[in-house]
Amino acid sequence: MKKYNVAVAGATGAVGIEMIQILEERNFPVNEIRLLASKRSAGKKMTFNGEEVTIQELTHDSFEGIDIALFSAGGDISLEYAPSAVKAGAVVVDNSSAYRMYDEVPLVVPEVNPEAAKSHKGIIANPNCTTAIAAVALWPLHKAFGLKKVIVSTYQAASGAGAPGMNELIDGIKAGIEGKEVENKVFAHPLPYNVIPHIDKFQENGYTKEEMKVTWETRKIFSEPELAVSCTAVRIPTLRAHSESIVVETEKEVTAEAARKILEQSAGVKVVDNIGENIYPMPLNAAENWDVEVGRIRQNIIFGSKGLEFFVSGDQLLKGAALNAVQIAELLID
């Protein structure tokens, strides 16, 4: 089997660490792995396949001989360094929002539009974590019944803000227990014992950019530019794994039973739906798992025979980010 030289830019971040672990777990055919991070992390050691690897400073010269570069270091870093990786001959899989809406850049969820990866011109974009988790559940339903309207309410974990967000939640919980002031620097308000209906910057239409990403990106991934998608994004005080309540109106008639059968046969989906035993998707169970959990599947009482409602939970760091990126890399070598 051919082996590939792989670079991970942002190797010390929450998503970068997961990327490295997933490359191991999925036995990706790595010849050389090059771990790239900021100057302050250069020289430190990380482990890959049982061997120590020295972290290198990310520069424009970091990509010579690299076949695939996985980026998870933020949009500004991707905009600056991804062109250098492409120029050196690498294919970039970018986890940031930098290139997602460029017409010439494929936006890929492998369970949905794997063929789009073939049209790349050096860069392939990973979708927003919320979009990716929803898309895995929505796509098989769209194929079977046709989606007319999609309304999403999210319950997003601190992990959506990376390691700093997770640390702020942990520190805030400790401070609250000890009766100290709960500080917030990462989030707009203190997150412990709270929910914050505000993720990313507000737009002129009153939605946040996080909410509009779900609309814009779902349309692009599904190749449905007019699909009606609306989202309200809320940060909640869980550490890891996002959840979403989703209501859809379909073109064809749909039943909960028919939808459940479709989802049970769908890649990347785990149906967790037994209300008689209080079994349904939850972040506590979805965290650190590759599949997106789908449950509470029921007929929507507003849209009736053409309406469906369900709840999903998926690991934001995995299917929402690192796993999806490695799956795209697998498409490239296939």
In the CATH scheme, what's the topology name of the largest domain?
Dihydrodipicolinate Reductase, domain 2
Using the CA coordinates, give the radius of gyration: 20 Å
Q: Would you report the number of β strands?
A: 14
Strand percent estimate: 15-25%
Strand/helix succession: EHEEEEEHEEHEHHEEHEHEEH
- How are the strands of the biggest sheet laid out side by side? 5-2-1-6-7-8
| Low-pLDDT segments, ≥5 res | none
Instruction: Give the overall silhouette.
Output: globular
End-to-end separation: 11 Å
Q: In CATH, what is the homologous superfamily of the largest domain?
A: Dihydrodipicolinate Reductase, domain 2
Query: Looking at the chains present, what oligomeric state does this protein adopt?
Result: single chain
Give the domain tally.
2
The average pLDDT value, as a whole number, equals: 97
CATH architecture of the largest domain: 2-Layer Sandwich
CATH class placement of the largest domain: Alpha Beta
Structural class: alpha/beta
Which sheet architecture does the biggest sheet show? 6 strands, parallel
What does this protein look like?
A six-stranded parallel beta sheet has the order 5-2-1-6-7-8, sandwiched between helices. Helix content is 30%, strand content 23%. It has two domains: 4-127 and 321-333, NAD(P)-binding Rossmann-like Domain (Rossmann fold, 3-Layer(aba) Sandwich); 131-316, Dihydrodipicolinate Reductase, domain 2. α1 crosses α8 (318-333) and α3 packs across α8. It has helices at 14-25, 75-87, 129-145, 162-177, 209-222, 256-264, 283-286, 318-333, and strands spanning 4-9, 30-37, 45-48, 51-54, 56-57, 68-71, 91-94, 123-125, 147-155, 228-232, 242-250, 269-271, 292-299, 307-314.
